[in-house]
Structure formats: structure tokens, C-alpha cells
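Example record

The entry below shows one chain as it appears in the dataset: sequence first, then C-alpha cells.
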Amino acid sequence: MEFTRTLALQTIEQIGNTVMVSGWVNSYRDHGGLLFIDLRDHTGVVQLAVHPQNTEAFEVGQKLRDEFVIEATGIVKERAETVINENIPTGSIEIEITHLQILNTSKPLPFPIFDANKVNEDTRLKYRFLDLRREKMQRMLTHRSKFIKAIRDYMDNAGFVEITTPILTSSSPEGARDFLVPSRLHPGKFYALPQAPQQFKQLLMVGGLPKYFQIAPCFRDEDPRADRHPGEFYQLDLEMSFVKKPEDVFTAVEPMVIELTEKFAGKKVLQKPIPRISHDYALETYGSDKPDLRYDMKLV
């Protein structure tokens, strides 16, 4: 007998095993005495079948509604070929329930979780905890986690040391206004939130650390831009000691940029090493310090 709480394990190899699963009721169907429940968690969806012969579980199943939180125990069985759902990874099996328990109920929702793309964005943001249950949001959060892990793995293998620098700091001249935090112990004085960890990473280099990096939060009290989230954003911040020329930094970082682009954006980097142009050439030729070279829109 095997027990598991993740739906991803309910594959063809689990047929005949007794499993325990928990999650949210994604949908509920009563087919003339036979109940079908689509159970959802962060790994996906699996179908539960509740037969009327199991009186206790069937009575509990009749009380279910969308987004109820349940725990179910049952036997994994193979579906008949005529009812296989090829649209989901678990579409070839279902779990025949022997025990069913309601962990928490749910009031009627302001929008359906499985069809929230048609819902007004203001409504989704008002009920953000519901919006986060959507498959797209779950996928994006997981994708970001894997992206950050790939950066950390690369930087660690390249000999960089990850150090988290302070958030409450003193103000330093930057390109935008600081966010200020009043000090309780020193009335009338304020901490500033760092726009970037510039002074801290320079301090680390002077202190003898050869290579530093962090996924740094940056706070800037400025208007939103087309390519920057207002207020707070994150950047890969790094510093290297004993660098003689810019090419040393390019060589250290370029393989990571190529790896992240190909693995997470699904784009093939055609030119390796990545072509480099000077700042003066970019301005004189394209009129911008970040030209889009796909269009080759040169000044004439």
C-alpha cells in the first residue's frame, strides 16, 4: 500500500496502489448516482470517482462544491479507452475513492478559477489569493523559481559568493528619489531603501572578497517605465575584483545569459559570442543606447 499527497505521482505506474491525495475541487459532476470530482493542486488535476456503494464517501461527495478543500483515499485504476482525457497528464487513470473528508468549505467565488482569463484584471487583483490558484500563475511562479535557481547554480560554479546586503541604509546619490523609512529611535531621521547595493558591493571588494553576487531588490521612487516595474524590482547584481578590462566581465557573464535565454525563453542564440557594439556607435548609428538590432533601423 502506497500513500502520496501529490497528484503528479498518479500516473500509469500507480495503478492498483492505494493513494491519499488532497487539494481543491476543480469541478464536480453527478452522473446519475456516480460522482466525478476533478481534484486540483499545484501539480495538476486528477479525476476522483465516488460510487454509491461506498455510502459514507458518497454522502460526503454530495456535499461538495467548487473550491472545497478535500482529502481523499482510494485505489488508482486505469480508465477505459473511450473515456481517456489526453489533455491532462493524468487523463488515463482515475482514483476510485474509499474515504473522503472535507477539510474546508468555500463560499461562491467572484470568478471561476479555471476560466479567469475572461475576468476583469481589477477583480483578479482584488481577490489575488484566488487568482494565484490559476494554472498560469502557478506555472509562472514555478518558472521564476527555476530561473533564479539557474542563476545561483551558474554563479556558484563560477566562484561567486552570494551575499545579501542590508535593506535599511543611508541615502546615497542615485538616479531617482529614495523611499524613506522613519526611525523610531531617532525622531526626525530616516533610513533609505537602497536603489541598488552599490556602496555595499564596493565595500565587499575593498574588504577582500573576489567575486560577489545577489538577486538584489531595488527600490526607486519614480514613475513607471515601459521596461521597469515602478517602486520595486529585482536585478542580478555582481562585482569582481582585479578586473582589467570590460571583456573580463563579459566573458564571465555571457555563458549564463545564453543559457538562460535558450532554456527559459526558448530562443536560440545564433551568434556566439554575442556581438558587442560600443555606446558611441549605438547612439551614432541607431540613436539609442539599447537598439533593437532585429530591425536594423539605422540613422541616415
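Notes for this example: The first helix runs from residue 55 to 61. The chain has a mean pLDDT of 89.
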